[in-house]
Amino acid sequence: MRAAAAAALVLSVLDGSRAAGDPPGAEAAPTAPARVPEVDWSPDEFSGPAYDDWLLGDPFRLVPRARSQVVRRYPRGTPLQGGFPGRRLLLTFDDGPFPETTPRLLEILAREKVHAVFFVVAGRVDETPLRRNGRRMVQQIIAGGHVVGNHSFNHPHLVSLAEEGWRQQIQRAHAAIFSAIDYAPTLFRPPYGHFNGAIDRYLTYRGYTRVHWTYVADEFRGRSPEVMTRGIMEQFAERERLGRNLGGILLLHDSHERSVDCAGVLIRRLKAENCTLLDAGDDDIWRFVDVGEFFQPAGQGGDESTTASSLPAAPAVLEEARRWCEEHAGELDEIRRLDDIQVNINEDGFGSVAGHDPPDEGTTEP
Ligand SMILES: [Zn+2]
After folding, report:
1. Which tens digit of pLDDT belongs to each residue from 224-233?
2. Residues at Cβ < 5 Å from ligand 1 ion
3. DSSP tag of 284
């Protein structure tokens, strides 16, 4: 026990923070809420008592929601990927926060009344000279009703690190995020989507849900926001052709100005699409849902079933969509003109556009 406690103390010192992730044996930070249960803990064991209080936190607590609508928590550690019933999209932004681009994105999301998940590279939140801006940025993200997820400390290929290395990447990021926003993140997206069985078990043990993606903007090729949006729309169409669920997780990066613009263009295009769907009597309209709602039909996540299932939007959502259509009736044609851009989906699922593909900027990976 003494060895475990010492190891735990070392771990917490390495983390540079004694936030909620600290095991018993480490001194609690004076400002941190007393959430650490009094049980034995060893950093070398995957299995152990469930530290739900401090491991799970509550990413939803800042999302306004009536008490009667409290979401069922997604089973922890269950990976989220693939398609989901209904035209429900979860918007996610990786690799930030970026003081240059994230604030404008937050403005767009606020204007469009859309919530997103920001998978932050926590080194940007915790390390000088980024720390001051980074901490303020994640606090603004939370204030906007969004959720902050863990995307490692400085974005390595976790699978190329020794176990101690990837554990630190997860744990340091966890502590840095907790320290900045006072809740424990429960969503983890592995850099580049790469992980292995040991990493996965550790994530599960730490109470994390691993979140992947269904749709990508493929922003690393210097394309315009309009072309990227068309690429995403074509991915929707492709899934529809394949008879797969259309709902899913969209991956963008708030590191790029064009990604921020793409988010705005896409949201408006889908709102315009809803006008067509509503006219046709389809009540399964496109909606960007917050992470709580996305998780709600527990057990249906990760459904790659070939049978597409629809899910009607709530009456209030339909009503708001109708109102939007009335208010923007004069702009619909202009918004839909986007569709004149022809894109093709390649075998990786990315849209390609003749004459619109500047040289690769070095990586196509998230
Ligand atoms: Zn990333």
Report:
1. 899 889 989 9
2. 94-95, 191, 366
3. -
